[in-house]
TrEMBL record:
Belongs to the multicopper oxidase family. The lineage of its organism: Eukaryota, Viridiplantae, Streptophyta, Embryophyta, Tracheophyta. GO terms for cellular component: plasma membrane. This is Monocopper oxidase-like protein SKU5. Coiled coil: none annotated. Gene3D superfamilies: Cupredoxins - blue copper proteins. It comes from the Eukaryota. SUPFAM superfamilies: Cupredoxins (SSF49503). Keywords: Glycoprotein, Signal. Residues 1-27 form the signal peptide.
Length: 551
């Protein structure tokens, strides 16, 4: 009997290996060459300001891939500052060397180039990329990523007539260097506010600062997929289309239960797919993205406006903008967030249903309770803190230090308090242990007045709970453990909390951060070191041959 069991395990392993080899054989290699520049001619809002363009484009070019493809991006940095790109939501399976954040990569120096090589391993969905250091995201450099299902995997909705990428985000009139320079002041760090909302790099329809507005051309009676991402720096928005409903189908690599919505809240760093059917009279209709927690009657430029144009329309948009929820109505937003659930029967990157993997009976190995707030550090320098610790970026990327010297002289593992708040605010190179192949619960508490948004590189996490007020152990009784959606960015409401579960099966050095740019830039982040001592490259990739060294 024992021998029979052993042989069965061998056969099962052989099948898995064969499947992996077949998947790799079917994958293609995509080669991209990016010329990254500071472009002073684009002027999306008629201001003299440098915009980060890729091959002359703002937003940058689409990365269009299929599950398991290999993407080679040769980045030529023709800017005047070091540069990195990160691939928001791409999990970089076994390969944090390609993650493109300060803790994993040396920056690409001005006048040089470097090639990222990453695989969209076991993923589908809507994502985006952006520059990750030096406050560059405030100048653009972002673009869409699509990861398409393999042909053998059924998509849980009919093929749309076409797809549109819609990158929406807040924008500053000042140059990113000017805005960055203000971060050393209390006014800049705590009170700087964006000026306008862009849709695909274009200003709102009717705004005197706008050079152009975004418009999508549709055919009456057809259905379209909109891949919507919040690429902004600070503000959540509510998206809606005049006289049209939307069917939510996907978020950040997970197919969702299909719910019909009049409007959708999208928080900083998040991505969604919705289906929109052009089932109204032939005309033009407003597309609106109104900022949350902002009195948009006073700040009208913080309402992004574009057009859904029917191809046989002979009339322009008319009437008032479509009403959305009160921007200060947190109950609406929380209830909508709780209604976004995982489609348990659909396959995604693999043919087995998403619901094959669930959290109803998991045993937690770790719990992190992370509180975000502000603090003035030495000489009254304004910072954002997690558990009263503000992240200090070392000259040597953590991943290099970990690989070559086991972190010695660069960081002290587990010095960061994962379940308590330091009595005194401090700088620290915050690196904590994530137990390999253990389940972790991360509770994110927001002590700020702003909507926050947290992201974990390397994983999709299960969003099990939201709440307003304090989190306690009793809050677990409110968790949704049946069909929580899996994504990589979760909003945390002012004075509230969000809770996620993650299975740490992806060895590497992974960034856990606020997606709000000034929060991240001023220290609201840490790194989770998930270590597998097995040197087998099938467990974690070795450094790439073109590895950059620094520090």
């Amino acid at each position: 009997m024992a021998s029979t069991g052993y042989h069965r395990r061998l056969i099962a392993c052989a099948i898995l290996i064969a499947a992996a080899l077949v998947a790799q054989a079917n994958a293609i290699h995509i080669y991209l060459e990016w010329n990254v520049t500071l472009d002073s001619t684009i002027k999306p809002v008629s201001q003299d300001q440098p915009v980060i363009a890729i091959n002359g484009l703002f937003p940058g070019p689409l990365i269009n891939t299929t599950t398991n493809d290999f993407v080679h991006v040769n980045v030529f940095n023709n800017m005047d500052e070091p540069l990195l790109f990160t691939w928001n939501g791409i999990q970089q399976r076994l390969n944090s060397w390609q993650d493109g954040v300060s803790g994993t990569n040396c920056p690409i120096q001005p006048g040089t180039n470097w090639t990222y090589v990453f695989q969209t391993k076991d993923q589908i969905g809507s994502f985006f990329y952006f520059p990750s250091i030096n406050f560059h995201k405030a100048a653009g450099g972002f673009g869409p990523i699509r990861v398409i299902n393999r042909n053998v995997i059924a998509v849980p909705f009919p093929k749309p007539e076409a797809e549109f990428d819609l990158l929406i985000g807040d924008w500053f009139y000042d140059s990113y260097k000017s805005t960055r320079g203000m971060m050393i002041t209390h006014l800049g760090a705590y009170y700087t506010f964006p000026d306008i909302i862009l849709m695909n790099g274009k200003g709102p329809l009717g705004n005197p600062m706008s050079k152009a507005y975004e418009s999508f051309n549709v055919t009456q009676g057809k259905t379209y997929r909109l891949r919507i991402s919040n690429v902004g720096n600070a503000l959540s928005f509510n998206f809606r289309i005049q006289n049209h409903q939307m069917v939510l189908v996907e978020t950040e690599g997970s197919y969702t239960d299909q719910i019909t919505l009049d409007s959708l809240d999208v928080h900083v760093g998040q991505s969604y797919s919705v289906l929109v059917t052009a089932n109204q009279n032939a005309a033009d209709y407003y597309m609106v993205a109104s900022s949350k927690l902002v009195n948009t009657s006073d700040f009208t430029s913080l309402v992004g406006i574009g057009v859904l144009h029917y191809s046989n329309s002979v009339s322009q948009v008319s009437g008032p903008l479509p009403d959305g929820p009160d921007p200060f109505d947190l109950d609406f937003s929380v209830n909508q967030a709780k209604s976004i659930r995982w489609n348990l029967t659909a396959g995604a990157a693999r043919p087995n249903p998403q619901g094959t993997f669930n959290v109803s009976n998991v045993t937690l190995s770790q719990t992190f309770i992370l509180q975000s707030s502000i603090a003035d550090l030495y000489d009254q320098i304004p910072r954002y803190v997690v558990n009263n610790v503000s992240y200090s970026t070392p000259e040597t990327p953590l991943k290099l230090a970990d690989y070559y010297v086991n972190g010695t002289g660069v960081y002290q593992l587990d010095a960061f308090p994962v379940r308590s708040v330091n009595a005194n605010a401090a700088y620290e190179v915050s690196v904590v242990t994530g137990i390999h192949k253990g389940w972790i619960e991360i509770v994110l508490k927001n002590n700020l007045n702003a909507m926050d948004s947290w992201h974990l590189d390397g994983f999709g996490f299960y969003v099990v709970g939201f709440g307003i007020g304090d989190w306690t152990a009793k809050s677990r009784d409110t968790y949704n453990l049946y069909d929580p959606v899996v994504r990589s960015t979760v909003q945390v409401y002012p004075g509230g909390w969000s809770a996620v579960y993650a299975f740490l099966d992806n060895p590497g050095m992974w960034n856990l951060r606020s997606q709000l740019l000034k929060h991240w830039y001023l220290g609201q982040e840490l790194y989770v070191r998930v270590h597998d001592p097995d040197p087998n490259p099938a467990k974690e990739r070795p450094p790439p041959e073109n590895l950059l060294l620094c520090g």
